[in-house]
Batch of 2 targets.
Target 1
Amino acid sequence: MKAIAFGQYYPTGSILHRLDPRAKIIIALLYVICSFICKNVLGFALLLISAIALILISRIPLGTVLRSIRPVLLIMLFTMIINIFLTRGDTVLVEWRFVHIYAEGIYNAVFMMIRIFVLIIGMSMLMTYTTTPIMLTDAIERLLAPLKVLHVPVHEFAMMMTIALRFIPTLVEETEKIMAAQKARGADFTSGSLISRAKALIPILVPLFASAFRRAEELATAMECRCYHGGEGRTRMTALRYRAGDFVWLLGALLFCAFAVGCNYFGIGYTL
Amino acid sequence: MAKIELQHVNYIYGEGTPFEVRALDDVSLCVREGTVTGIIGHTGSGKSTMVQLLNGLSRPSAGTVLLDGEDIWSRPKDMRSIRFRVGLVMQYPEYQLFEETVRADIAYGPKNMGLSAQEIEERVLEAAAFAGLDPALLDESPFDLSGGQKRRAAIAGIMAMRPEVLVLDEPAAGLDPRGRDAILRGMREYREKSGATVIIVSHSMEDMARFCDDIIVMAHSRVVMQGSCKEVFSRSDELAAVGLDIPEISSVCSRLRAQGIEVGEGIFTVEEAIRSLTDLFAEKEKSKG
Amino acid sequence: MAEPMIKTENLWYSYNDQEPGRGEMQPVLRGVDLTIERGEYVAILGHNGSGKSTFAKLLNLILEPTSGKIYIDGRDITAEAMTEQDVFDLRRKVGMVFQNPDNQLVATVVEEDVAFGPENLGIPAEEIRTRVDMALDMVGMREYARHEPHRLSGGQKQRVAIAGIIAMMPECMIFDESTAMLDPLGRREVVDTIEMLHREKGITVLTITHHMNEAARADRIVVIDDGRVLMDGTPEQVFSQPDVLLAAGLDVPQSAALVHGLRKQGIDLPGCVGSVEECIATIVRAYTSV
């Protein structure tokens, strides 16, 4: 029943969905880097075009994508306003009492908007929308695998992530049930001082923790019964294998990065 | 007289979102004062949703919920007083225990009612007795009790509010026969001593036949049958149509009738069946001898 | 002659002090001797606290017995010489499904969860794939392979949990009150699945329950009370002694209670009564012969 629209896996079977999750993580990282390297009109135009291209390729309905941006709309507006009013420059556009708006401010504001938009689209199109959480954790585990040499508990970390993902909906549901049960005994979570409100949370938190511990214990037993003994000697059903397509995408992302760096270095692209 | 009445109640989860689900569809029902009313239906038939409407935990999307003839949503600010009058024991209520002692946990409801310490203590003892909880357990931590004891402590927590209507959502789920009987006995005792109206949701037709005066059958978000135990269990075909059974003993009797043994109709407890069959055997013996 | 699947000898168990609320060192099991042959379908009945769940947990070493012997497939699993690998072998052979369907599913996708056991066993990827598909087919959950477990019904979750064990190719499966938290439909789904595993796959089944109607479907019922085996026999034999069952805090199926009640009234009803059909036949026979 819970509609957490932002970044939930949305299966469409597009090329993006079929990319290797490890490749997707690397591409997403490169994309984020690009969005910070780009400083001129050409760069931002390319970013914007590529973001739109990603949406089209993912075949996720535009409405769903735009809804996912809604929660950050406020942040975007805020950064825009701050940039418009606080950026100082040479070309004054509006001058009224203490308000000075410069062309540079507008320019910055638009670029910041594009940057945030591109960041969200890049992350959600490459990762959350097109990759199941389990694929993501799996990919992170494998990408970080070399760290095992340094005794970093990579597998354990990934296992914890998986279990957390599995149990978050269960615990959310449980919290609602406990709240309802305590309300039925006259609990009041909405009135009174801050302290009394904090106190009113105890009847929710104690049962919730008790239940989480009980679940953890039972799950641990069940896992042991299924012969779980850590990452050693463990195989995976879905072996990840890079394919030609993954390399093409990676190459594309690298070229984009190189291009952005080149633009900055040689001063190509229109700057104000 | 109707203690609780639902008039054309609709309930829709996530209205206006793509996840919209109609959980209750034009539900009208009536619970008579002082009776034990059973609600039966499969998971997803809407009965758990319905139960949460009775004490105002959720608000109907349309329609009214009447308690003693008065709309419980007429003064939403005063909803807490409705919850003290309609005590709801949710499914697996033991998961709501949180206090350091059983005593304090049972006292949570009465404390929220703003009662005096003496009154609270009195009610805690009374409720513990109704629920069949050994007074020696009152000073234990609720987390140290056995499963059945925890359940009884949680139910005592509701009984301590002395509700006029006691609603129990599958109070015996997961318990063994002893645990189940203890809880159902406690429910009956509470009703006898306090004159309260009891509403009980259960999957066990046998328990329903033993304890209920009236039965309400829910299926596909609607009320499909409502009437006395006898009326409802005699309509076994309709029950079967919504995937529900009649008590085993009732089906034994109807199959005996089909084989030419004229046991009385509308039997749904073992005792009645024994009585009826004993009479039949005696009659036949007599007519022969 | 083949070794029995499970054999226990004078099995005792007491919880130690660290387990609060269980009483001090009260033995939960007091000398259980039980032999379960390969391919049997056995229901273990008992009220809560009778020791039935403890017994199940000993069989794959979730708990270790205080004293006594347990032989699984002829091998003494209580021996000192048991290595970690031996324990894994045991748990693969004797799979266990628990009560709460939520607390035994690990992964966020059904098929990933079913793969969890075989993955732990280090089985090659292609074979895991085949086993997962086979196991999901068997419990009738193939179409849900890509679903998220928390959106399934209780009965479906429990079937996924069963598939997770099946994928490890067990020889024996223990169901530790696996239907206690389910509604009647879910219970039916699970019991049907259990019966199918026993009948079609020849898996030895041990189901722990306090639902009489479920126990009635087994070939053999063992009643445990106060840490000891109280009754051991076919459903017919067990249900024909309602007084003993009631004293052990258990129910009697209504049809058996009816026959018992009529006998008490002096009506002569010869024979065993294990099922509704037998009950009806017995009464009809007696009535016509009056």
Target 2
Amino acid sequence: MAAGQSAIEARGVTKIFQGAEQQSFKALDNVSVTIRENEFFTLLGPSGCGKTTLLRLIAGFDFPTEGEILLYGRDIAPLPPFKRPVNTVFQNYALFPHMTVGQNIGFGLEMLGKPRPAIEARVAEMLRLVRMEELRNRKTSQISGGQQQRVALARALAPQPKVLLLDEPLSALDYKLRKDMQIELKRLQHETGITFIFVTHDQEEALTMSDRIAVMSKGKILQVGSPHDIYDRPSERFVANFIGETNFIEATVSGTANGQASVRLSNGAAISAGVPEGFTPSGKVTVVVRPEHADITGDRARSTMTGSLSNIVYFGTDTHYHVKLDGGGEFVVRRQNSRVGGTTHEVGEAIGVAFEEGAAQVLRD
Amino acid sequence: MAKRRPPIDIKAQPGFRGAAYICVILLYIPIIMLMILSLNSGEAVGKFQGVSLRWYATALQNKEFYSAARNTITITVFATIVSTILATLAAIGTTRVKPWRGLGAAFMVINLPLMVPEIITAVATLSFFALLAGALGLNFGIGNLILAHTVFCVPFAYMPIRARLEDMDLTLESAAADLYATPWNAFRRITLPLLVPGIASGGALAFITSFDDFTITQLVAGPGQTTLPLFIWGQTRKPMTPEINAISTILLLVSIVFVASSFAIARRRK
């Protein structure tokens, strides 16, 4: 993706919550990140990692203890929420219960002092966008959860914010509806061309929807990158672990060149592995290999590692082969299931594990 | 998730039905008797001699009753409006601010009048006004009563309003601010409309409290400041006629209409 203009930029943002009796909690620790215009950007991490705090600082519900938050180059950190051209979709939707669907959607425009006819037209347009024209005069308590979600989206999009913030908006929906809304959200982002900042703890949601993802833990951003980068080239153990399943292998670095490291695995095999940007590994390191980036083979001579099959787990779309490595440790291989072909293996069988080209990645820690 | 036990059906417990009937009878029989006897055509309070509206006519022609009703309405309406406004402000001030050191104390101070025996408040109020009159020569006439009623009505109005504010989803106010509403607009368009049921119940409680207050009014009221409860009390000192039943029934109906309408507002708003 072409590097667009920066829409939101956090510079050295720290947020400390002062609790009772000298107890303080550092929710954000010197966070810097740039979110580009028109991008679907996801803040991903477990609860308590600071992702919602960062969102609230951008919205203006909290103010940073230190650092700046720039919106198109202007520091908005000291502004109250009603002076920021940024709108939020809340986790519980926060629809105004005493207003109709149409009044909810028009509220932001009304507060901006737009003339009545312009508001009416925009509300109609937003209802069309979220496909809810016929529910305009319903009370918000008379519509389903999925419909409330759409109203919340329409309400936040109606004033044409520079940036739309979404705080785990899909977490209250059931699985099927959540899948539909993921597609719907992508469509809306595409049609409106508004920068979306999406907060979630669901890695699958992050991978399917985002242009770029920032993985957060304990108040810090660990890695920023495309879903592909994050999944295939995790830079830290936490990232590799949090997103998908993975195999960790101990290794020793024997040399680096052109962003690749030559490493020797504990069983003696020498392979080449990717390296996180700006990091020069040396000595003992951990290497990760995704289960689907390796295969099991009967040809032990041509495999990277050898062992014996300890377990086979069938998952419908794929099968997991658990290999007990000869040098100790376990390695999991995932293989896509198909109707025809493929050799069958049995538990206990002596087997080799072959890595795909470029499957291995060195971790920072 | 833990399995939920079926709730105990209290109606199935032995003796429940009987106890419930006894409670309802004890609560309402005297009131119903009072209303029935107000239709008595005879002179005696205790002996029913036939149906007539005679005593209502007598009551409605009684100048003292009118004067008492006028006083009561003046005092109650003023006290209700002012105390409800004060209680609303107090409730916002104790729920929509950053916690501060004196918050618990403020809460106590607002609610203390509920815990103090009314006769103590009455004596204190009396002494206060006596002091004002003695030291500064100040006497507001019926204003004294309005002031006293306003003060003791505040905690009654405060409680339901505060409860409503505490139950309210704070993200609604955040959402309003997010959608460009200034704090004043957020209050006017979101908080206040959602607070109406609380204000209605608070106002109704204040109204009823002021309307039938006896103890404080008895001590503070000056000559010519007789309110309805004082008037009825005065009637019982004389040889009683069913007129007192008629008057009581009128008061009861006014209260019922008022409470019912405030409940209706609260329900509709929910």
